[in-house]
Structures are given as structure tokens and as C-alpha cells.
Amino acid sequence: MAVPEAGNIEMAIYDISGRRVAEKEITVESSGEVEVELDVAGLVSGIYTLNASFGTSYTSKRVVLAK
Questions:
Q1: β-pairing, 2-3 with 32-33?
Q2: How many CA atoms lie within 13 A of 32 on its CB side?
Q3: For residue 23, what are the domain limits?
Q4: Can you give the CATH number for the domain in which 52 is found?
Q5: pLDDT single digits (tens) 12-67
Q6: Global model pTM greater than 0.90
Q7: How many structural domains is the chain composed of?
């Protein structure tokens, strides 16, 4: 994820029924590309939605988790 300036990234993963199953917030110290690792050890294989926001920017992606 590319960020234009320092700030907070908020991420959440939702299962197919819309339940929030994981979340993470990180503070970014400067602009540029950011790599975020989310712990999915407790999740089962399936289709999830990953939502990420930074300031007024927002993205949502469908993710397939295969274990």
C-alpha cells in the first residue's frame, strides 16, 4: 500500500457473513510503500474481504485464503 504522508493505516478482514475476524492499525512515519502483515493463523480457508483506510483514502479487496 502506498501512503502519501505519515499517518495511521487501519485494516480489517471480514468473513463471507460480514463478521470482522481480524483487524490491525499501524502508524506510518513517512510517505512511501508500506507492507503490512496480518495474523491469519486463526482463520479457516475461504473468501474474505480486506478493507484498508488511510485518512480519507479507502480500499476494499476480496482475498482468498488457502491453507
A1: antiparallel
A2: 4
A3: 2-35+44-65
A4: 2.60.40.1930
A5: 999 999 999 999 999 999 888 888 888 889 999 999 999 999 989 999 999 999 98
A6: no
A7: 1
